[in-house]
């Protein structure tokens, strides 16, 4: 790590010290080198672009896929440094939406610097301004999205063009929690990364216990989910209708709400804030409640229906146990219909290469669900890195032999059947 007084900045960020991987990444960024980071959720990947900005007082662009992700990052960092947010119709500097042209000019002229959080679409729209300002680095957050969204989201289709915008391009720092070797190669090729430093931390999460259980009818499933929904809980459902059904029929102490993309922004914001602040203890949600959810005290994740692939599954269970010394239980309740739904989705893909790619990912998820002999955490680690060798977790249903795990709390459960 360069001899810069970065340690003086850590208390402002609520951090006592950096992990060795964070130090390597920050050093790489400060040295102007492209960096590709695969870091598990809760590892602290945002520090890898926030600290370089604070150390150098130079602008850092953070390209984020979701408004909710940008909003959370803005709230988290606006008290310690300048934040400039641009997404959709919203523009805000340090949370103030009354942004004049002077702000753009002050940043362009070097009078102000900021963490600039922006969606891919807004980045493309603001190309002329972006290329006129001093930039230390460009961070592509949740960079695995290019493999999933580039086919239908124009902002991601055109995002690779940023490498041609600059005569002397700022270094790119690509960050994700889930990437196979194939995905890493795709990201590197997509952004034409120049001999990037690859920092990869094992997907092993010692603070998570993994369980898989076959569905047993809606009534019994609701009772089972109520019994295992200990502490703050997310129940991921396959459809919007299922989120509402679960929220309406499952009643527990602490309150429950549903969340899906069919709700308007104010409704979704109210539910997310209510969950964060303790108004709701349980959220029944589609995968729309995923990236950008930074709530530290989630202790249970339930998938009511098989996830589409290992990558998505790891992103979603990664929402749990983010506070130090906190552990969480993660359950998948699956049925035969889930396999049919996933296969139907793949059958609708016309591009043969994309179809084969999705089939391969779906097969790995099916193998995980049907597994009855291998440590589940090791299966996940080996999926992302086939050469990884780890001890069994001794916490999952396979390692412990607990194929139907439950911890009911008497007097807290009421089911509407």
TrEMBL record:
Residues 26-197 form the Helicase ATP-binding domain. Keywords: ATP-binding, DNA-binding, Helicase, Hydrolase, Isomerase, Metal-binding, Nucleotide-binding. GO terms for cellular component: chromosome; cytoplasm. The keyword Isomerase applies. One of its GO terms (biological process) is double-strand break repair via homologous recombination. GO terms for molecular function: 3'-5' DNA helicase activity; ATP binding; DNA binding; four-way junction helicase activity; hydrolase activity; metal ion binding. Its EC number is 5.6.2.4. It catalyses: Couples ATP hydrolysis with the unwinding of duplex DNA by translocating in the 3'-5' direction. Residues 220-369 form the Helicase C-terminal domain. Belongs to the helicase family. RecQ subfamily. This is DNA 3'-5' helicase. It comes from viral metagenome. The lineage of its organism: unclassified sequences, metagenomes, organismal metagenomes.
